[in-house]
């Protein structure tokens, strides 16, 4: 808090600014602003981010478990389909002796249907995982940004007294006026 007040008070003691003024050199002041914002984000957002990431990790693990259960179900279906295929193959041998080829077509269709079903399930699992990961990332970004802004505003509001607040507003109005004159 003392450093923040000292930085505002010391503005009047800069030799290049004359009697009183602000450093309007954006390249000189941005690293200070960025370091303050990053410090506030790291300080206030670390715990929240860890909690959010842990929650998302649990949800993703749950989704993976569900996908694995779906995969196991698909494998069981595949085993049943293979058993049925073996049965169909035995019947096909019997019919083949008699000259029937329709069973062979049924076998191919059954294999193709099972392969398509497994492929769809695998694609669904991969899409679900990708979607959940993207949603988790977006939610974490939004939460961190909101909480960082709330924390920064709370810190600034609690640190500024009325006089310092009015000085800051006047200084910012002066900077905006100077910027407008430069752009005109």
Automatic annotation (TrEMBL):
Pfam families assigned to the protein according to its UniProt record, in alphabetical order: ATP-synt_B (PF00430)
Main location: membrane
Compartment(s) where it occurs, according to its Swiss-Prot or TrEMBL record: Membrane
Topological category with respect to the lipid bilayer: Single-pass membrane protein
GO molecular function: proton transmembrane transporter activity
Keyword annotations of the record: ATP synthesis, CF(0), Chloroplast, Coiled coil, Hydrogen ion transport, Ion transport, Membrane, Plastid, Thylakoid, Transmembrane, Transmembrane helix, Transport
Recorded coiled-coil stretches: 64-98
InterPro entries: ATP_synth_b/b'su_bac/chlpt
Transmembrane segments: 32-49
GO biological process, one term: proton motive force-driven ATP synthesis
One Gene Ontology cellular component: proton-transporting ATP synthase complex
Function (record text): F(1)F(0) ATP synthase produces ATP from ADP in the presence of a proton or sodium gradient. F-type ATPases consist of two structural domains, F(1) containing the extramembraneous catalytic core and F(0) containing the membrane proton channel, linked together by a central stalk and a peripheral stalk. During catalysis, ATP synthesis in the catalytic domain of F(1) is coupled via a rotary mechanism of the central stalk subunits to proton translocation.
Matching PANTHER family: ATP SYNTHASE SUBUNIT B, CHLOROPLASTIC
Family membership noted in the UniProt record: Belongs to the ATPase B chain family.
This protein's name: ATP synthase CF0 subunit I
């Amino acid at each position: 808090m003392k450093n923040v007040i000292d930085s505002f008070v010391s503005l009047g003691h800069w030799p290049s600014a004359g009697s009183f003024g602000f450093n309007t050199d954006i390249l000189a002041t941005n690293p200070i602003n960025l370091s303050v914002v990053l410090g506030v984000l790291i300080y206030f957002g670390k715990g929240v981010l860890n909690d959010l990431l842990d929650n998302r990790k649990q949800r993703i693990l749950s989704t993976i478990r569900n996908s694995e259960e779906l995969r196991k179900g698909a494998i069981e279906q595949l085993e049943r389909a293979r058993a049925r295929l073996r049965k169909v193959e035995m019947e096909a041998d019997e019919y083949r002796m008699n000259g029937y080829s329709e069973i062979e077509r049924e076998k191919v269709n059954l294999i193709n249907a099972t392969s398509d079903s497994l492929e769809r399930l695998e694609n669904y699992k991969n899409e679900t995982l990708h979607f959940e990961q993207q949603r988790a990332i977006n939610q974490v970004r939004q939460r961190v940004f909101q909480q960082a802004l709330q924390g920064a505003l709370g810190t600034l509001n609690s640190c500024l007294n009325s006089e310092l607040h009015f000085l800051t507003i006047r200084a910012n109005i002066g900077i905006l006026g100077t910027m407008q004159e430069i752009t005109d």
